[in-house]
Amino acid sequence: MTKTDLKNERGDHRILCDFVVPGARVLDIGCGTGKLLELLIETRGVDGRGFDTSQQGVNEAVSRGLSVVQGDADNDLAAYPDDAFDYAILSHTLQATMDPKQVLEQLLRIGKKVVVSFPNFGHWRNRLQLLCNGKMPVTDYLPYQWYDTPNIHFCTIRDFVALSEEVNAKVIKAEALDAKGRRIGFNAPWWVWNLIGDQAVFLLERK
Amino acid sequence: MTETASAKPEKTPNILPSTQASVAAEQMQMPASKLMRFGPENPLRLDEGTELAPWQIAYETYGELNEDKTNAILVCHALTGDQYVASENPVTGKPGWWSMMVGPGRPVDTDKYFIICANVLGGCLGTTGPASTNPETGETYGLDLPVVTIGDMVRSQAKLVEALGIETLFAVVGGSMGGMQVLQWAAAYPEKVFAAVPIASGPRHSSQNIAFHEVGRQAVMADPDWCHGQYAKEGKRPTKGLSVARMAAHITYMSDASLHNKFGRNLQDRSRITFGFDADFQIESYLRHQGMTFVDRFDANSYLYVTRAMDYFDLATAHGGKLANAFLHSETRFCVMSFTTDWLFPTSESKDVVRALNAAAANVSFVEIESSRGHDAFLLDEPELFKTMRGFLTGAAKARGIPAPGNGETHSPA
Questions:
Q1: How many angstroms separate the Cα of B336 from the Cα of each of A25, A64, B20, B369?
Q2: Does the keyword Repeat apply (chain A) (predicted)?
């Protein structure tokens, strides 16, 4: 297999990879067809497992030799033992779960560390669309109409920080990304990131 | 289990049915395939508590074992299958029962892997079964053969694998009862199984499944020609009972939709119903044909033994009531597969296995394949099944450090 050029990968995937220590045991929840898993295996040599609701995505991933099971984050995470993985990863999936809080609690239980990336609903363009048009925002990152979106539980960066508090998680690292998936390379208070970050990636652990 | 189902009687085998039965009888004692004999010094311990000796296991192999002996795949057959997974069955003259899956360039690629497939213990194509000769009496065992279990079948296979000088199997694969054997292998010999592929199977035989088997067994035993299992001595064969058993079982291998699509309410060679009990409907004719051809290749007592083995299978109970215990600390890579319309081993059964494997933190893949063909789908031309098997084995081969066939591309079966 050829080495993958990290620069060409999705922005949050690049940062997710940076957050993961080489050789770790990783569970990617909502892995789709396994793109991130493959990237983690190639660039970080992880022992990677995946999990997704889509039968088609799972079949595709397994036929490419990845260890992936069909299931959904809301119901099937309970089967995993405590500390089963070094990292439990939830990439752009939290907002599509029925019960994000319970899912995050499960992740903190089965992963020694937890990596979460999500689109930031608090981005200024979303706020502006709602303010000016009075309509639910539709952007590159959030391309769905309100009635056909799988994203049923949107949050902002500040919401996520508050949820982390509530489930007793410590934020080890966090990054905000711009519209092109590039790191916003300066430290700023949450409210600034909450305005200009299109998406965010958090590394958490139990307190 | 069954061959590819078709509405019309399949092409006439080159051997006449009556001759077929006598060929089958010959094959029970002296199979055309390879044969491993174990003498009195090498008895087979049985779950029942006794030991079987001497005993023999008939098997077939395909491909070449590599120098390190790391490329061996054991294929476990289903209820009424046999060792001829990828070569002509000497009784029926038909091609191997899984030749779409196993062969040169196929997902289980005989150009790369060394394939072993053995007739199960209790079977009737050369491995010790109720039709074998009881060394103590010089007569056919009949019901004097101890009842065997899936565990016993796997223990006999492990002895064969050991005798072939293979320490670790690269993979153990199988569907239905074959899938049960795969799970048993992974639970009993985790260090000997690098990868495991249980297809259309489950961790236990359900109450409903036991019920169907009981109907089959009662049909056999109700046939006066069964003679309390001593039909061989009486020179008789309980073909009526076994045929009915097969007809009932065959229904469970198909889905409502596949029966409807294939036969509907179509009439057989007639334009109207006859107000009688002849086979008016195509489905009746089809089932009768399935029953009739089955009795020429299968031993009635053997049918009792293998169905019983499935009934007794319950992996969780055998591990303190918790299925995950069966797989604790397992380093085997699993790929579990089920089919959407399989109601004999529904997806929920496979999911139980997957949940247990997750709870044991094992390495597992799970795929549910969309198919309208019910349980039998695992034996049929299902491209997604082949694609998954090829991809999974290729990934596992890479992890095992043995050459893998290609890159997960689908090769359409002939």
A1: 21, 15, 36, 11
A2: no
